[in-house]
Amino acid sequence: MDAYYRPTRAEISLDALRCNIEAFRSAMPAGTLLMASVKANAYGHGAVEIAAEAAASGADYLGVAFLDEAVQLRRAGIATPVLVLGYVPPSGFALARELGISVALFREDALEAAAQSAGAGVPPLKAHIKIDTGMGRLGVLPEQGAAAFIERALCTPGLEIEGLFTHFAKADECDKTYTRLQYDRFTDVVDYVKKHDLPIPVIHAANSAAGIDTPEWAGGMLRLGIGMYGLYPSEEVNKRRFELQPVMSLKTEIVMTKTAPPGWGISYGAKYVTKGNERIGTLPIGYADGFSRMLTGKAEALVRGVRVPVLGTICMDQCMIALDPAADARGFGASGPVEAGEEVVLLGCQGDEVISAEDIGAKLGTINYEVTCMLAARVPRVYVRDGRAVSVTNPLT
Ligand SMILES: Cc1ncc(COP(=O)(O)O)c(C=O)c1O
């Protein structure tokens, strides 16, 4: 376990992760493979630890955004198949071959580069062909040569085509008209593959939202991201189908308390000024940890199960909370004043109160995905199983 000395940490529940994976697995049609999306440091949760736990929970594939992320997993000893969902330049093909990493294929020059580097004794480059059915990001357009591209890829020496996939743009919306259109476009391509008996083992389309609302459109593999982390892709998906458990909590401790006199400025710019004698707590977390300065005037914290405001400007490494009489009236008073050393929750539950990634996202004008991804590398991740810390990662120590 890595050491950490500042009492700020993200607690990552491996039990919740497992439950969420099992919930999706049991809700998908029998035989559907599961890819755990661990890109962006596993949406902030820690790529290597989440990948290892997902693999141990039966994930068949891991998904990442860049080759570098896949290399990190292999170097950590993770042998599960990995697909790079984003662009890999031909300069990375040799390493991908050597490490058995699969790449997404959607560019003509990638076929040429793969052919050039093929040779006796060189392992094949594993690849999944990406079709753009309406995301407008990566992928070959169905009407502009998808079938021919697939045929060429299958004939390219040195390539092993493992899969064919697409990505839905609006699967998290209530109205499924657009997703149906994307699914139909993809089905046309898949029908071509089937009609011509083209050997492509895994055909996949669904993200978490499609896994929740339209599992019948997933194909042979669900690419599970946000749902695995216990968060819903949107408020519009059918949340009643799954009771997901959030995997990440963000916790810290009060490192100083004081009663500031009336008219006392709190934090940079003295934007908050005490009205009377106000009890203030200082927290060792700030915007450099991913607790965004844009939450200034909006953020809340949980202390003794009571919701309190963050006061004044959020600094780079610290911020202040109100331990005021109003909060006292709601519960502090009974057990004496809040003191340094007491736990504070900034994301997650304490007592009956919850601050969710959606709450924070709404305050920032963003989505829950970005809230967990924002958590900085310098925040230690403490992995918890059965209520016990089983490992800690802290790149600083
Ligand atoms: C191609 C692809 N598939 C699957 C996913 C997982 O999506 P989600 O986190 O919504 O489940 C992503 C993530 O954005 C993705 O880019």
Q: Please summarize the sheet with the most strands.
A: 11 strands, mixed
Outline type: elongated
Strand content: 25-35%
Distance between the termini: 10 Å
- Secondary-structure arrangement, i.e. CATH architecture of the largest domain: Alpha-Beta Barrel
Number of strands: 21
What is the number of helical segments per DSSP (H or I, 4+ residues)?
12
CATH homologous superfamily descriptor of the largest domain: Alanine racemase
| Radius of gyration using CA atoms only | 24 Å
Name of the level-1 CATH class of the largest domain: Alpha Beta
Protein name: Alanine racemase
GO cellular component, one term: cytosol
InterPro entries: Ala_racemase (IPR000821), Ala_racemase/Decarboxylase_C (IPR009006), Ala_racemase_C (IPR011079), Ala_racemase_N (IPR001608), Ala_racemase_pyridoxalP-BS (IPR020622), PLP-binding_barrel (IPR029066)
GO molecular function, one term: pyridoxal phosphate binding
